[in-house]
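Researcher: Going back to the complex we discussed earlier. I've cleaned up the inputs and rechecked each line, so this should be the final set. Can you rerun the prediction on the complete assembly and write out the structure?
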Amino acid sequence: MAIKHNSGIILTTVEEVLSWGRRNSLWPASIGLACCAIEMMHTAASRFDTDRLGIIFRGSPRQSDVLIVAGTVVNKVAPMLKLIYDQMPDPKWVISMGGCSSVGGPFPTYSTLQGVDRIIPVDVYVPGCPPTPQALLWGIMQLQKKIKEKKEGKVWDEIPVREVPTASQPLLEKSPFGF
Amino acid sequence: MQFSQENSLWINQEKISKIKEKYPSVSIEKYDNATFLHIDKSSLIDFLTFLKENLGFKMFIDFTCVDYPFHNPRFQGVYFLYSPEDRQRVGVKTWATDNTLPSITSLWKGAKWAEREAWDMFGVKFEGHENLVRMFLWESYPYHPLRKDFPLEGIQDTYLPSKNLRPEENPAHNYTPYHTYVPTLEDLEETQKARMPNKSSQIVLNWGPLHPGTHGTIWFLFDMEGEYVKECDIILGQLHRGVEKIAESRTYTQFIPYTDRMDYISALCSQVAYVNAVEKLLNVEPPEKAKWIRTMLCELQRINSHLLWLGTYALDLGALTIFLYCFREREKIMDIIEGISGIRLNSSYIRIGGVAKDLPEGALDVIKHFVKDFPKKLQEYETILTTNRVWLKRNINVGTISEEDVYQYGLTGVVARSAGVPYDIRMIQPTDAYDKVDFDVPLGKVGDCYDRYLLRVEEMKQSIKIVAQCAEKLEKMKEDKYIATENPYVLPTLDEVFNSIEAMVKDFNLRIYGEQAPEGEIYLSGENPRGELGFYIISKGEGHPYRLRIRSGAFYNLQIFPELIKGRTVADAVALLGSLDPVVGETDR
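Model: Rerun complete. Updated structure for the full complex:
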């Protein structure tokens, strides 16, 4: 979304820069609840290696901005999960990983929470029981897309675009903007 | 040390006549794979003491209750005991008049949690129990969910709508804003206080439930004096999903995926243990090839499970490299399992009467390559850890378990073998092809964390040996049948369903009405990487079990944790918990 200036200067909005930074350094809180946590560990470990995408698992919710709900949320653990979500600083996002945390999965029982969205708002649902590491990576990329497209304040299209010629790099004859 | 498959593991006639002499009122209930003795509640403790001290049944295996709503008294307690010398099991049944039973914690300390669970699930009270609190649910929870009159989906009395639902959105057809009651933090605080009624120090340290070091969602309470733990209790139930309740409304085949999700690290072992129990109940004999495939996959899964244990254990004690190495090898095993069954983790591959699919082309080649490659990798890990100074200091003489502890708490698996007790279900009651393969069961001497580390590494080597033997054998059985579809209880393969009307009708009947198992009871267990995983199934001749009790190895192994951590530092708790290796899905069910 940024405009590359001919002399190497990049023009953009503060919002864009913040969103770029946020979506490329998603730090999830390392909380595992059930089976999905094993696949989450596999996503972070040697083969899939989320570190290369800037995704580093943190031990404290106060240092993280994504909550990956990996596994069955039962009624007893729900208030503690909510507490952890409340402890995370804004802006924060939630990925619901797997069938159990999305809608209760194969456990329509007295003790299982039927979907983690009953206690915290969810941004991305990843299907699977459990989702493969590839699926979780897909979910994280969906979240990145979501952060990128989130329109806050003025919409970019409304800001007029101009390219300015300089002495060293004169404006090309065929400007894409037509002036 | 090989025992034939026909060798019954249940109490023999000689001992029964001895019991009859002393207790003439005892009645015997005999099944093919279980023998129960009925005794009056008034003489229960006396009778169990007699079994323990005179007849050698000194190891506690399991305790559970069964609900018969139309019987008076309503609840029946079932005890399982084991005699290590004679290799015999026995079940003892007693009716709980006035919904109370005498507590047997004076005889076996391991009954403490099992009795708490029975109170939680059935509302049976225990006289003489030191602190009878709820095992899985919170203190103010008003129901006892495993009673037959409690609905599976619970009482949906709380308004709890989805936070994601926008006003213009159309909710799903079965969406309801009402939900079962979710406890508040105050409810949980009350639960925590009930666990430690006589705390002495200023600070009760909470470890978990959402902590990376607790291997899941276990909640530890440490009553601290300085840096040392004086008193400890564990709150479970942060992953209690009601699996035993679900089993009562599913057919036998439908329950197979739930066994995966109990012990998700060793899914295939759990499936095999469950399917073996059901097959014995239905009298189904799987073909030879299926038995070998099961044994091979079980051992691959055991390596997989022990690798996860080694990786996370080393990570907890500060060796990150091992974690990454172990996960590299785990990926290879998971690829093999995915290639065979189609799913990486919770594979649901075993079926009643065989396995779901034939081995794909080239699977054995991959496995053979892995068998050749893996011992070198294991050697590398041992080079890093076994004589590492830090590793030795963190492990040696931490959490020493004695032989008496094993019998008292009903410890099984590696934890029991580290104390020198040769308790391995693969040896004492071999199922599948375990009686045809050659392997050793390593035993420890001291019973500390270091012993358990050495044992698990050695078990991986033994497992590789078994996998190699199975792969060699399966090479010669390529054309054989992998599922015994001629049996009336076994689901036909997809090919048969599409090509014959009889198979289609059979498939329909089995899927809709379930396997109509003959009336009877069975207790059969398998050797999970975490210990003895037993299934106690009561069938009333319906398509689903009347009661399915899961005897979890990790549940009983974890029970010794508060005893071992007393007088030690919190840092040792990490090492000790890692070496007991619980999986919360199995402890909580």
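Model: Worth noting: The radius of gyration of chain A is 21 Å.
Researcher: Good, that matches what I expected from the previous run.
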